[in-house]
Amino acid sequence: MRDFPDQVGDLRLEVTGTFQNQDGSRVASRWCVHGLNNGVMGTEAEGRPVSFTGTAVWAVREDGKLLHNWVERAGWELYRRLTAAPSQDD
């Protein structure tokens, strides 16, 4: 995670939705990352536009501090797009 901002140039995070339960102990968000490939996931840093979606869920303590964080992202789909052979149309 520490190197991720360097691997995606012009990194932009678009939050597409958020919600929380009534007492605020669970918060969730749906998001999309956009940027340029600077070697994300060990791929060639060729500068192509990249984007992928994800979901994050946080467990929050009564004092508002983070207790747990779970993140699911469409990393496999991104990796497949970046490593696929170019099509005849490219």
Number of helices: 2
Give the SSE order as H and E letters: HEEEEH
Strand content: over 45%
Count the beta strands: 4
Rg, alpha carbons:
16 Å
**Structural class from helices and strands?**
mainly beta
Strand order, biggest sheet? Answer: 1-2-3-4
Low-confidence stretches: none
Textual characterization of the structure:
This protein is mainly beta and 90 residues long. The protein has two helices and four strands. A four-stranded antiparallel beta sheet has the order 1-2-3-4. A hairpin with a 5-residue loop joins strand 1 and strand 2. The longest helix has 9 residues.
How do the strands and helices of this protein lay out in sequence?
Elements: H1 4-7, E1 8-20, E2 26-37, E3 49-60, E4 66-73, H2 75-83
